[in-house]
Here is the input.
Amino acid sequence: MNEGLHTKVAHDEVDTKHYGAVTMPIYQNSLFAFENHESFDHAMQDVLAATVYSRGNNPTVQYLEGKIAELEEAERARCFASGMAAIAGSLHALLRSGDHVICVNQAYGPTRQFLDELSERYRVEVTYVDGCMLSDFEEQLRPHTRLIYLESPTSGLFQLQDLEGVAALARREGVLTMIDSSWATPCYQRPLNWGIDLVLHSMTKYFSGHSDCLGGVVAGRADLIDEIANKGYMLFGGVMTPHTASLMIRGLRTLPLRMERHHSSGLIIAEFMEKHPLVNRVNHPGLPSHPQHALACKQLDGYGSLFSFETQLSAEMLKKWADALRYFRIGVSWGGFESLVTVGQTPASRNATGNNPSVARLYIGLEDPQTLIGDIEQAWEHVIGT
Ligand SMILES: *Cc1c(COP(=O)(O)O)cnc(C)c1O
Here is the structure.
């Protein structure tokens, strides 16, 4: 864990503007009025910084953005209504017709769908690469490549990309880099320090931490964030509400604390799964068996608690196992207090062997890990007997 993280989220200067309130008040207003037209005109000339209208700036949201920028060691951050609003808004702001994008093929599904839309409608060229090797990116570079889009680790197979290597390659070629870092949070991965240009998160996951609101954020250099703010943010209007920002601020106070718990519980259960005779492999970057474990040790300070495992059982059997679980709920998303499970097919890239193992994704919440292990065991017994 980065030194000072707990202090960064817990500590604020006394804010004399708000009667010394220790939490940021919710500014529940759409517009801001001015004493005279001169100050209004002045603010209108600086809409990116001034509080004029809450689709542009709102003090509650700005407070949160400042905190995240601090955690990511970024010049600036912008919060959106959801992770997808941050992704779509940023991509739309930065890409033009004729640009080429290299994206990891395991990127979040809707991110790929959005890039495919840009490709079909606006002639943005997209190339998907595995991304585990630096050469995957190098080989696909073209004169009009504008952006390399990363997600590390990915949220299905938990593959990593070499952030320092990709950033150096991209800088040399004048290409922008952007990463979805939702899994690691700024507690465990600070991509800007490796030279990546923009980092984004689905705040719906660990930042919120309580499965009660949606949000997204993008952080990076001021010029890039301002360009995104001017276009993808203001014009799409998918902004975070002050109410949501207040919930996110509350989540942020305990983010490093919760991440420590997720880190350790996730590893305990991943190690337990790896020993189970019915499990072929566990996809968790923190396990020494993960093919990119050395890279994980280099660029991550800790681990998220979302991982997957593969088994020879049919998907049908695995779904029966999921049904028998009492503490893991069946559902999408992750990052909250509650453990979750979903069952699916092994991604095509691993299906070369001809047999068709199934895969389950586990999210380890804040419950006692021994309770969760007991739950997993009783569910196996339920499905296969002893
Ligand atoms: C959930 C998720 C998103 C999208 O975030 P929303 O807040 O649901 O829009 C993006 N990337 C990853 C890795 C996610 O898990």
About this structure: DSSP finds 14 helices and twelve strands in the chain. Residues 82-84, 108, 155, 180, 182, 202, 204-205, 214, 216 surround pyridoxal-5'-phosphate (CB under 6 Å). The longest helix spans residues 255-275. Residues 255-385 form a domain with the Aspartate Aminotransferase, domain 1 fold (CATH 3.90.1150.10).
